[in-house]
Amino acid sequence: MNNKTRAPLVHISRRVALPWYKAWAIRAAAIVLALIVCGVLTALLTGENPFALYASMFAGAFGTSRRVWALLQSVAILLCVSLAVTPAFKMRFWNIGGEGQIMAGCLATAACMIVLRDVLPGWLLIVTMFAASIIAGGIWGLIPAFFKAKWNTNETLFTLMMNYVAIQLVAFFIIIWESPAGSGKVGIINQQSQAGWLPMLGGNRYMLNVLIVAILTVLMYVYLKYSKHGYEISVVGESERTARYVGIKVERVIMRTMLLSGALCGIAGLLLVAGTDHTITTTLSASRGFTAVMVSWLAKFSPIFMVLTSFLIEFLSRGASEIATDFGLNEAFGDILTGIILFFIIGCEFFITYQLHFRGHAAKEAAENV
What we know:
The protein is an all-alpha fold. Helix content is 73%, strand content 3%. Strands 1-2 form a two-stranded antiparallel sheet.
């Protein structure tokens, strides 16, 4: 009787380490494969030339200088929110409240622009707006962190519910500030005086937004990689027990980190209201608080790689809209293509983290090790 157990057909093992260039080669291969699948699907379902669709996506993002700057602006806002949620996620604090923290910053900025427009000079108004948005976003992030630190509440549910509270607060003040009366909208804030509008740099109204986020990206990289606070975040994320053993005050780290995350989301809210849209609505954040979660995870919490992932997601989003316009397709079809590409990108992370061993290959490795 044979007591030998048969080896499994496929064995999965965790990779010890993978050089960064090989990891990005896997991601590039995933994107190419995704484009092939999207091309085949397009030809089968619509009869359109897949290459024409890809050209349309490219034109939608880079067709004109105005489109390029609009893309960079969208990338900057998404990147700012991604930078905000990253310290919390690296600490294993599941901050799903980016939406609410952004809306808190939007509300604080709009309040300053409306209430203080005739009180403060232009430069002081903008300084006050920055301070108000940082404080508002920081407080919105600090509230769930305080309850987590003191009573170990579920941060995922707490931060998620805070989103709805912030949205309803914005809806309340929109009715108070509505213009014209009865419209249910605020309209363009300070359209004539442009009080509180962020100044243009080089004749471009998006330049300052992009520059601010670029500076924040560098600062966040240095903060997470080289500062004492960044080290404490990493230790708490690895093991709270270890962190307490080495003398790190975990509760303080949790509250401090969420205060920072909320403050950065507040800055994103300011950039939306004062730098881009110059109004406030309940949908102004456009679900960036949730999209930023995916950006942060895909970049492995690296602020530098977040630039690439933010750019890719915004490019796909704008390309999908352009496809629907140029070819008269349902806009959902463009979203389907975007979803397929993102599915392959997310799925390839499995092959970066894990390695597959097939039965014949495993037997060969065992023989070589004897």
